[in-house]
Structures are given as C-alpha cells and as structure tokens.
Design brief:
single chain; about 600 residues; mainly alpha
Length: about 600
C-alpha cells in the first residue's frame, strides 16, 4: 500500500525546497536566522543534556554541564506554551524573500513546534517537544525504558566528558540534580495516577524489578560512581564524594519513587485507548511517529499488506534452504533455535557478537562508494547495552556522535540473551544502526556543518530517521551484500517483516484493544523470533505508542519517492544522488521530504 497524496500533503508547506551545497544566508534570511539562533539557545538552556550530547556545553554554555533538566510538572506543563510562542514568532516571518534553504529550515522548525504544541492537549506523561523529537513521547513519566533511573547513569557514563577538575565537579553537581529529578518525576507519577494514567502491570513489574536491582547494589558499586572514578584517575579521588551523594540522596530518592509506584493499582490493559481522550491521543502519537495524517486503520492495513508480501518472498527462500514444512514463522523459529546459527550464551559469546558486528561495519564501509558520494567518516563504536538497564532497553539502538567529533556514534546491542540474536539477524541490524543507516545519516549532521544548529536540535523526526535506516538495510541487499549469504538475506527480510508487523501490533494494542498476550502471540507467529525478544518489543510499544510505526511508513515513502524519481529521470537517475539528496535534506517530516525530492527531480529533468 502506498501513502496517499492526502497523507503526504496534508500539512506540507507551500514552498518548494532544494537543499543547497551549504546553508548560506541571504539578506532576506537574516530575521529568520536570528530567530533560529535564539530558539536554539532556548532549547539548549532547557535541555542541558542535549548540550552535552552535542558537546556544546562549553564557552558561554559551560554552566549547562553542571545541570540536568527541570522535570517538574510546572515546567513540563509550560512546554506547549513555549512551542506556541515560538511558532507565532516564526510564522510572523513571511516566506516570500527567503532562500530555499531558509524556507526549508522554517517549514521543518514550524512542523516540530506544531507537534510540541499539539502535545499540550494531553496533560500527562511525556508529550513535549523534546520527547517528540527524541522518539520518547508517551503516556508514562517512568516505565521499563524511560525515566531518569534508567537514563541518567548511562548518559553521564557515555556523554559527560571529563578533562578537568571543573568537569568532575560538574558531574558531582549533576548527581545532586539526579536526586532532584527523581523526586520531580515521582510527583508527576502521583499526579498522573490521579488522572487515571498508570502503566500496565507487566510494565510495572519490569520497572520495579530494575529499580530493585539498583537499590540492592551498594552505593560505591553504582555505575554513576565507578564511571566517575575511572574517568578521574589523573585528577583525584572523587569516589568518596560520589558514593556519599549516591547513598544519601540518589538511592533514597529512587526508593521514594519505587514506593510511589508500588502504591499504585495498575490494570493489565496494554493500550492508550484506556485513557481519557485515548483515541485522540493515539492519533497525535501516530502523527509524531509517522509525520503523516494516516489513521490507525490505514497503518494497520499497510502492515497486513506488506507482511503478506514479505512472507511470500521469505517462503520461497526458505524452500530453497530445504525448509518447506510449517508456516514461515515456524520455519524461522526453527532457524533461530538451530545451534549452528547461535553464539554461545556466555560472556565469551557476547564478545564474539561484538567482534562480528565490528567486522560487518568494516565490510559495509568498503561498499559505501556504491551508495553515496558524501565521503563521510562516520566513526562507530559497538557496545553492549549496560546490564543495569538491559531489562527495559531496546534490542538495539544508536547514540549519535558529538558535533565536535570528540565522541563517535555508539551502536548498542542488547545481549541479555545472546540467543535473541541468531547470526543471520545481525547483518541487517548493523546496517540499520551503523552504516549506511543511523551512523551514516547522523554523520552528515555532525561532520559537514551544512545544517544550522536548529535543524540538528530538531532532527528527531521519527519516520525520516527510522525510515532511512530501514531503507539502508534494503540498499545493502541491492548492492549484493547477501549474494553469498542466503540466511543473511532471510534475516534482512525477517527484519522488514518485523517492521511491517509493528504496524499491525502497535495499532492493534492502542486502537483495536488487543491484549498484551494476543500481541505477543501474533507477533511471534509473524516473525518467528524468540519469545523473549518479541515480548520485549511488545512491551516497548506499550510504553512508546506510535513510535514503532515510523519505520515502515518512512521506508515505504523513501522507496516511493525513489521510484518516482527513477521513472521521471530514466537514464539520468543516479542512486547515489538520490541517497545523498535524502541525507542532505536532514531529518524532515515526510510531507516536506516529498517536496525536497520532487523539486530536486524537476531541477535534474530540465
């Protein structure tokens, strides 16, 4: 099923955009560029973690390095006002006279602010601009995968750099702030519970279990302490101070949060249909996740149709491998249990997985000239998801590198159960998270300086970001990387099928009132994946509704636009040019991406 023209143009701006070689300002761009700069400063001030992630917590922003964001409801509730005020200021700048690049930046920024403004209708959970741009919008302040208890230690460990004593002191200051954030979240949990917003019992059990593990660990052994000690060996002994803050402030605040959660009475209902205005809320979450106006029924139908198409392709490949009995899902389950496809369920096996992923990244780098002329470096470090957060974490994800190049992109893989990852499933995951997927697309933002800061801060348009990564998986098949690896091609198609299944499961849970058990059974039958991995996936959709729909919706649109360009240009079509045009546009709503590609096609067709 293709996206309808109504879906793609419903909120599109009127200006046609052609991304330039650089975003150079013209005289008419000065007012809007000044607004972009001011808005960027306001966003960074509001989110010190973002400043650190991008290595912008220096110079005039150095004070941000000692802070964490304000997580209170009083602050959160103001977000839609923030978005409305800035949206009005941007709309007051006439589009006439702007360069194509400035017009593109204006349209993209306005779309993001409109999403944040729309979240104000839903006065609970995480429905802010930062959440929408960070793929974390959802109904629950804290869950098995969200909340400061699950993110702060990892954030400091992987992104807070320490070269000086001031950097170490800033870490300690953030530890003090960590306790404050935990209590602010606890207040919001209790407030939301009064509105009937409580995560389901199965998410609650997972969340409480992770908190139990943290609370049982001695303060001196907490990662937030041991990481600081490791980073400051040449600067002094900061462990005693960090241990004291952890014991006296952080762990008591976490215990208070856990007690507040234990006092709640969750139901087993999995979807947001159970909430007040749940249908409208899910429609907003689908818009955040897909940047289209597709309805839940349309998304569900797309998933069923694409699932059937992919199943037919996989059936033929499985028969070529001598596997003809049972459903496609049953045959994939058999493959996933075959010892010859598995790494050992040991720490040595986990090391083998990491080594294999690094080998795959190296192989793909050698093929990139076939796919792109951008010559990006795109450094990637592969790491295991830290064990203290693996129970609630995604199966694989990417943390982008810093703007100054001081920190590479980090590709995380969840290795709680090594058996979750049969060998044939790892190439397509690595192409998605690494190269030519997230790490490549993100490297354009961090290496080239071609996009203004506001576009980097608002670069979390889910359908574009995840659609590109899913399209990147397809590209590696198209250039022959599975020619001698039929099981790897099956793994790629299984990954595509799983994303199509996500459309069905996410909408099933939140619009069609599926139970968690029905969703797990359907999804396992669809994918043939190990049940532990399927369960983790379904629980993720319960905590972050709509996000999982962006992958296949975005991928479908990228393929549609490519085929449209190819049909128009004929022999003039160049795959590398198409890919690079998509990447150079930066993360954009699908509505805007269609205009970028159409304008570029028209220019080449002249």
């Amino acid at each position: 099923m293709k996206l309808s023209r109504r879906d793609l143009l419903a909120s599109a701006a009127a200006t046609a955009f052609v991304p330039g070689a650089a975003f150079a300002a013209t005289g008419g761009d000065a007012p809007v560029n000044a607004l972009f700069a001011d808005l960027s400063d306001a966003i960074l001030t509001d989110s010190p973690e973002t400043a650190t992630s991008l290595a912008l917590d220096k110079g005039k922003r150095a004070g941000l390095k000692a802070r964490l964001s304000d997580a209170s409801w009083a602050h959160t509730a103001h977000d839609h006002v923030f978005c409305s005020d800035w949206l009005a200021r941007l709309k007051a700048v006439p589009a006439a006279g702007l360069s194509p690049d400035a017009a593109l930046n204006k349209a993209v920024t306005e779309y993001a602010l409109e999403l944040g403004q729309g979240g104000g209708r839903f006065a609970f959970g995480q429905n802010t601009l930062n959440a929408a741009m960070g793929e974390s919008a959802g109904p629950y302040v804290v869950s098995q995968q969200s909340g400061s208890y699950a993110s702060t230690a990892e954030f400091l460990d992987s992104q807070h750099s320490i070269q000086t004593r001031a950097d170490a002191e800033a870490w300690l200051s953030r530890m003090e702030d960590f306790a404050r954030v935990l209590d602010q979240e606890t207040g919001r949990i209790q407030r939301d519970a009064g509105l009937g917003v409580v995560m389901p019992d199965f998410l609650m059990a997972n969340t409480l279990g992770q908190m139990d593990a943290s609370l049982k660990m001695p303060a001196a052994q907490q990662r937030i302490v041991t990481s600081l000690a490791a980073k400051t060996k040449a600067l002094g002994d900061y462990a005693p101070q960090a241990t004291k803050i952890t014991a006296d402030k952080i762990l008591p605040a976490l215990a208070r949060q856990q007690a507040a959660l234990r006092a709640l009475k969750p139901t087993h209902d999995a979807g947001v249909w159970k909430l007040k205005d749940g249908e409208a809320y899910y429609a907003w979450l689908l818009k955040v996740g897909t940047t289209t106006t597709m309805t839940a029924d349309e998304v569900h139908k797309m998933g069923l149709e694409q699932n059937a198409e992919l199943e037919a392709r996989m059936d033929g490949l499985l028969k070529q491998q001598g596997l003809s009995k049972g459903t496609v899902g049953e045959r994939m389950t058999a493959l996933s249990h075959d010892p010859k496809n598995l790494f050992p369920e040991t720490d040595a096996g986990r090391d083998q997985v990491i080594a294999y992923l690094n080998k795959l990244i190296g192989q793909t780098r050698g093929q990139m000239p076939k796919l792109s002329a951008l010559n990006l470096k795109a450094p990637v470090v592969v790491k295991r998801v830290p064990p203290d957060i693996q129970d609630g974490a995604a199966q694989g994800y990417m943390n982008p590198g810093s703007l100054d190049g001081s920190r590479p992109s980090i590709y995380y893989i969840n290795l709680k159960h090594v058996s979750t990852w049969p060998r044939y499933a790892l190439p397509t995951l690595t192409h998605h998270e690494g190269i030519p997927g997230h790490a490549w697309q993100g490297a354009y933002l961090t290496e080239t300086g071609k996009l203004p800061l506001i576009r980097i801060l608002l670069s979390g348009f889910n359908a574009y970001v995840e659609g590109w990564a899913l399209y990147a998986e397809q590209l590696t098949d198209e250039i022959g990387m599975y020619e001698d690896d039929p099981l790897g091609r099956l793994g790629w198609l299984a990954g595509q099928k799983m994303r199509a299944g996500r459309l069905v499961v996410d909408t099933g849970l939140h619009a069609k009132r599926w139970t968690r058990e029905h969703a797990i059974d359907w999804f396992q039958n669809c994918t043939g994946s190990p049940r532990a991995g399927v369960t983790s996936e379904v629980d993720r959709y319960c905590a972050s509704p709509g996000q999982a729909c962006g992958y296949k919706v975005g991928h479908t649109e990228l393929v549609r636009l490519r085929e449209k360009m190819k049909a128009t240009l004929g022999p003039k079509f160049d795959l590398r040019d198409y890919n690079d045009t998509v990447v150079k546009a930066g993360a954009v709503p699908l509505t805007v991406l269609a205009q970028v590609i159409d304008a570029h096609t028209a220019m080449l067709a002249r």
